[in-house]
Amino acid sequence: MEPPKMNPVVEPLSWMLGTWLSDPPGAGTYPTLQPFQYLEEVHISHVGQPMLNFSFNSFHPDTRRPLHRECGFIRLKPDTNKVAFISAQNTGVVEVEEGEVNGQELCIASHSIARISFAKEPHVEQITRKFRLNSEGKLEQTVSMATTTQPLTQHLHVTYKRVTP
To answer: Which Gene3D superfamilies does the entry mention (predicted)?
Structure first.
């Protein structure tokens, strides 16, 4: 079967497409946590619709035990650089982030966050993300978050190497 043609609406995000692996391991920190490292595999694809599909799967660097998971969609408002990032996470958080793509950089911030009734505290109240394709062709992601007990603070930074287009 022939792969679907990319919908022209998502062309400004085509630089994100592919399977990516963290290289080196990602780094996490937060005022309430000990610094940590993680491995992550990212799949960003399309099926011809005017959106991208994504999944982020992180693992413990030593044991390969599954950690954080999230999946969803990245939509572009046609004929603009406005982007929506819709994500469901294995922690019970569902979020919509919105922002803009400018060249090979995507900056988004939470628009709405919902959680399951028994999500552990402190609750996430705000998230920002920045994706960019660096000069070496690697994808970088920086995530900051605010919780009910902490102001907006950088939480994660990871660089990915593309392993398949």
So the answer is: 2.40.128.20
Give the separation between CA 18 and CA 118, rounded to whole angstroms.
35
For every residue of the chain, DSSP letters joined together read: -PPPPPPGGGGGGGGG-EEEEESS-EEEEETTEEEEEEEEEEEEE--SSSEEEEEEEEE-TTT--EEEEEEEEEEE-TTSSEEEEEEEETTSEEEEEEEEE-SSEEEEEEEEEEE-TTPPSSPEEEEEEEEEE-TTS-EEEEEEEEESSS-SEEEEEEEEEEEE-
Q: How far is CA 61 from CA 27, 65, 156, in A?
A: 11, 8, 15
Tokens standing for 135? 């000069």
* Total residues found in the chain within this entry: 165
The Cα 42–Cα 56 span in angstroms is: 5
Summarize pLDDT for 30-44 with one digit per residue, the tens.
999 999 999 999 999
Q: What is the pLDDT of residues 72-118, one digit of tens each?
A: 999 999 999 999 999 999 999 999 999 999 999 999 999 999 999 99
